């Protein structure tokens, strides 16, 4: 497939785990490492006498938002409360495979009854667009969030393979702009094209470099430009879809972030897919649908904590002092292309950034056609390029 793909389209949705969105797709394809209903958390993690809360298929509209801060996720994966760097190192020593046992416990601390919210997923018919894409294309069941924390650090990893030490949605740092080199810079310098199609002020502007005047022409309103460019066969080599992250008047958020209805996210994915499918470029396109992080929802697959290399050697500020040496929770990821066999399941570990390429889809799956594969990540630090010992590709 590598030599056939000339355009990669990336849509990063918000705050849902693999089991929550796609776990029950195992009923359609047993090869998917999803759920059977036997999965559970104890109400009190680690206490065998505590009631078992099994993972169900009754998910619907979610409000309020489950916990997904660094400390909340620590408790979700390890089953122990995080105590801000005093008795709890950012990565728990001596635990090579986290038990994923604290989702229900942590959820109840957020709000009484929330354990039911995080311990349920969607039946395939409730997310019909994903159901059809799982049947017709590829699902990745080993794709993990890059950082065990909230949205913006993970979004920064997507296009630069690092959050430059950020482990929270730090408004001051984000407004100032993060300084790292991005895939956009690499593409520009190599003479390749990219475009950001936005429905809301785009999150890629949190990269300081993306505020340069030379990139003004790379930003396009989604509603007026995306279908036009698809129809004309003028999509650039690298396409980023920036959805509505907040409700606007008469236009609800469609990023899947609770409390946004996933029905609106399904409509967005369908809209993007149908525009791509109708494009004369369709046979040169790879469409990647993934999520920034798991949003506090249960997932049964242990998050990688061993052999995860730091992308750049930066340690986050105290009191967390996180060395970026473990990944976040597994997230839904779909690969869509006419070159993919129906019903494909990709078991290779992956993620967005850190251990692998900032443009995992571009670097791993796309050959620019002239044999100079490295041109796609030219200028990206070696630490951000290499695949780590756990074989992960972070996004």
Automatic annotation (TrEMBL):
Transmembrane segments: none annotated. One of its GO terms (biological process) is phosphate-containing compound metabolic process. It holds the Pfam family Phosphoesterase. Keywords: Hydrolase. InterPro entries: Alkaline_phosphatase_core_sf, Phosphoesterase. GO terms for molecular function: hydrolase activity, acting on ester bonds. This is Uncharacterized protein. It comes from Oryza sativa subsp. japonica. The lineage of its organism: Eukaryota, Viridiplantae, Streptophyta, Embryophyta, Tracheophyta.
